[in-house]
């Protein structure tokens, strides 16, 4: 597609349930990032994928969070046993080169009730 | 943890005035980028400045970088109501891209 696509756009889930968020990066982009943004706050780095290298998972807040990416394609961010503090917008971005301009999706707004 | 810190947190100006936002960071960088966010969703890239550059222009945007002070500034000249948004700096080191908390700019018509 023309841009980074994220789905779903909005997700409401019950506390304790697992959720899976999807990111389709721009074709050919080797780098992919996930961020979390709580209301009125900045972007909190979660995880970074670069090609076939081991991902940088240093930003994942707990072992309930995990992410996968196969090659240079789709990535999924999974949150297990969701908690109310997981409520936020989850943003995905991709870039052609590791240090270049990043293109963002419109995010998934997750609400845990 | 966040790398950059923007200042001020919020800025309100009249249309036609200039807006200046600052960003400070802590570690060595490869480049620094500024992004804009409308309505709390996706960010849009504005400008990139490399660590060996001191100033860069793009339309009404002017960015400066002082690596000795680990700081950058974004100047928007002749602001418009449509410039109302949140502005973030992002620092690039080896692999990751870290953002600050942003500056919320309001331009009053």
Describe this structure as you would to a colleague.
- The complex is a heterodimer of chains A (113) and B (109).
- Chain A is an all-beta fold and 113 residues long.
- Chain A has no helices and 10 strands.
- Chain A has strands at 5-7, 10-13, 19-24, 31-37, 44-50, 65-69, 75-79, 88-95, 103-104, 108-112.
- In chain A, the strands form 2 sheets. In chain A, strands 2, 4, 5, 8, 9 and 10 form a 6-stranded mixed sheet that branches. In chain A, strands 1-3-7-6 form a 4-stranded antiparallel sheet, with no helix packed on it.
- The mean pLDDT of chain A is 94.
- Chain B has strands at residues 5-7, 10-14, 19-24, 31-37, 43-50, 55-58, 61-66, 71-76, 85-92, 97-99, 103-108.
- In chain B, a hairpin with a 4-residue loop joins strand 9 and strand 10 (97-99).
- In chain B, the strands form 2 sheets. In chain B, strands 2, 4, 5, 9, 10 and 11 form a 6-stranded mixed sheet that branches. In chain B, strands 1-3-8-7-6 form a 5-stranded antiparallel sheet, with no helix packed on it.
- With 109 residues, chain B is mostly beta strands.
- The A-B interface holds A 4, 33, 35, 37, 39, 41-45, 48, 50, 56, 58-59, 89, 91, 93, 98-107 and B 2, 30-31, 33, 35, 40-45, 48, 88, 90, 92, 94-102.
Offer a quick outline of the entry.
With 113 residues, chain A is mainly β. Chain A has strands at residues 5-7, 10-13, 19-24, 31-37, 44-50, 65-69, 75-79, 88-95, 103-104, 108-112. In chain A, strands 2, 4, 5, 8, 9 and 10 form a six-stranded mixed sheet that branches. In chain A, strands 1-3-7-6 form a four-stranded antiparallel sheet, with no helix packed on it.
């Amino acid at each position: 597609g023309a841009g980074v696509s994220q789905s779903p756009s909005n997700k409401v889930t019950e506390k304790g349930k697992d959720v899976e968020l999807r990111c389709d990066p721009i074709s050919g982009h080797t780098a992919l990032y996930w961020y979390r943004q709580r209301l009125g706050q900045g972007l909190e780095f979660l995880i970074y994928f670069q090609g076939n290298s081991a991902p940088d998972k240093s930003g994942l807040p707990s072992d309930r969070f995990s992410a996968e990416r196969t090659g240079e394609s789709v990535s999924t961010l999974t949150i297990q046993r969701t908690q109310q503090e997981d409520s936020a917008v989850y943003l995905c971005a991709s870039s052609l080169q590791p240090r270049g301009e990043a293109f963002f999706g419109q995010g998934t707004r997750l609400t845990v009730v | 943890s966040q790398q950059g810190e923007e200042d001020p947190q919020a800025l309100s100006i009249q249309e036609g005035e200039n807006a200046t936002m600052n960003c400070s960071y802590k570690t060595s960088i490869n480049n620094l980028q500024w992004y804009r966010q409308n309505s709390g969703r996706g960010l849009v890239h504005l400008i990139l400045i490399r660590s060996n550059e001191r100033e860069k222009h793009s339309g009404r945007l002017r960015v400066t970088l002082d690596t000795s002070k680990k700081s950058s500034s974004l100047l928007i000249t002749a602001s418009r109501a449509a410039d109302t948004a949140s502005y973030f700096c992002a620092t690039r080191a080896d692999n990751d891209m870290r953002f600050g908390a942003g500056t919320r700019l309001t331009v009053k018509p």
